[in-house]
Amino acid sequence: MSSHITRRDMLKLLAFLPVLGVEWPRVLEAQTAPQFEQELPNVLVLVFDALSAKDISIYGYDRATTPNLARFAEKSTVYHAHYAGGNHTSPGVASILTGTYPWSHRAFHLHGTVADSYEQKNLFSLFAAAGYHTMAYSHNLLVTSLFHQFHGGIDVFKRTRDLCLLDDQFSDLVFSNDFNAAFWSEWLLLREGKTPPASLFGGLLDRMRRFIHKGQLEREYGDLFPRGIPHLHSLFFILEHAIDWIAEQLRHAPRPFLGYFHMLPPHEPYSPRREFIGRFDDGWESVAKAPHFFSEGYTDESLNQQRREYNEHIAYADAEFGRLYDSMVQNGVLDNTYVVVTSDHGEIFERGIRGHVTPVLYEPVVRVPLLISKPGHHRREDVYTPTSAVDLLPTLLRAVAQPAPDWCEGQVLPTFDGGGEGERSVFVVEAKSNPKHAPLTKGTVVLVKGQYKLIRYLGYGSYDNKCELYDLASDPEELVDIHSSQGSLASALGEELEARLNEVNE
Ligand SMILES: [Zn+2]
């Protein structure tokens, strides 16, 4: 029988020595600490929720929404055709963290969780096995649900409520070992308003308590946030607190580390600090597009107004990113850290549709930013070949000299593998109405290959198997459907998508 102590185990043991009144062994300290610092790079993944590439100035948007991301881009690799795995949080984040598409990880519902097998197959468990100190935080409880599934590989799992001004959820405190079931039961019960007046959860007294708490917060922060304090349901927070906490972790966390930090802004509600309100009252309007058959009935005027407010919220998130970036520069964190900035999905304001919980998968919903700063690499590179969220996991493993697992569906990103920008296929999957473990027959799937994008609707009554094809090089706004006019191209892409669907449905 043999025992195996990993470097990670050793780091944990060493961390407890001062608590036990034991001095650090000088020989070990001299031999190990510099080795960790110098040899293995850290990895930091920053996700800003619902940040569409179409609304970012470095990707060609007319409004200067992201001046700090632009500063960061000057010393980073910028991916211009990067696609989320899905069009809302659960599938988008699960694709980043598992390196697989939603048809594999199955977290494609609005409150989705991954298939059990992925609880051990994800970014955290792989980096933990490689000896990394792993950290996770999210404002978004949909992401926190995934963290609970991946908790075996997470050393520092900062709870969402720890960085909130007010968190009125308490069912998961009572049932702390069963977060997902308890939390969603409470959320759905309260949202539906089906609780009886005398109920402890969501009854009259409980609602009054929440009302009083919220009023106290508004008196304290209302002047700074005139449109209301950023929140997701009953969790209220300000982004500044999360940024401060992350900066602190980056200074003091054991090396090497993997950090995945997920900020809710610019996700709605679009409630930035006062200084950003009115910044884009410039009269600019989006390209007018006809209402889609899945239109939600919004007028162009309403969509332009909401997109303006969304852009203000992006500018606020960008400013806070800039503050973190400056802190990383000052503290030398960038010298030995891969820093990834991306999003889980985008946001749409066109064709009568707003937000991201929609069956449509046009560019504003699915094309997201991806910028990666590499240690010792200080010039900008631009990559235009299509890439996917599922590529991050194998790429970050490659960056730290680890092999990609065979279940991963992504590829190592261009500039990391020494390869060129060869043509490959990238997929996006929307399936929130499809049963979790059934073959994929209801939803929307996208295949992007080179400059072409095929969209196929599945199981939507009279729209079942309807396809659209766009040439993104000549038609980036997806105005001219060429599916009928480009028959042979449409057939080839259609057959490839069909073959892949058949494969995953087996
Ligand atoms: Zn999201």
- Given helix and strand content, the structural type is alpha/beta
**CATH architecture group name of the largest domain:** 3-Layer(aba) Sandwich
Q: What's the Cα radius of gyration?
A: 23 Å
Strand order of the largest sheet: 5-4-9-1-10-13-2-14
CATH C-level name of the largest domain: Alpha Beta
> What is the helical fraction, as a range of percent?
25-40%
Count of β-strands: 19
Anisotropy-based shape? globular
Beta-strand content: 15-25%
Distance between the termini: 41 Å
The hetero molecules present are: zinc ion
The name of the CATH topology of the largest domain is Alkaline Phosphatase, subunit A
CATH superfamily of the largest domain, by name, is Alkaline Phosphatase, subunit A
Q: Please describe the biggest sheet, giving its number of strands, its sense, and whether it closes into a barrel.
A: 8 strands, mixed
Number of domains: 3
Number of helices: 15
Structural features, described:
This protein is of the alpha/beta class and 506 residues long. Mean pLDDT is 89; it is low at 1-7 and 10-37. The chain is globular. A hairpin with a 2-residue loop joins strand 7 and strand 8 (235-236). An 8-stranded mixed sheet has the order 5-4-9-1-10-13-2-14, with helices on both faces. It is built from 15 helices and 19 strands. The protein binds zinc ion.
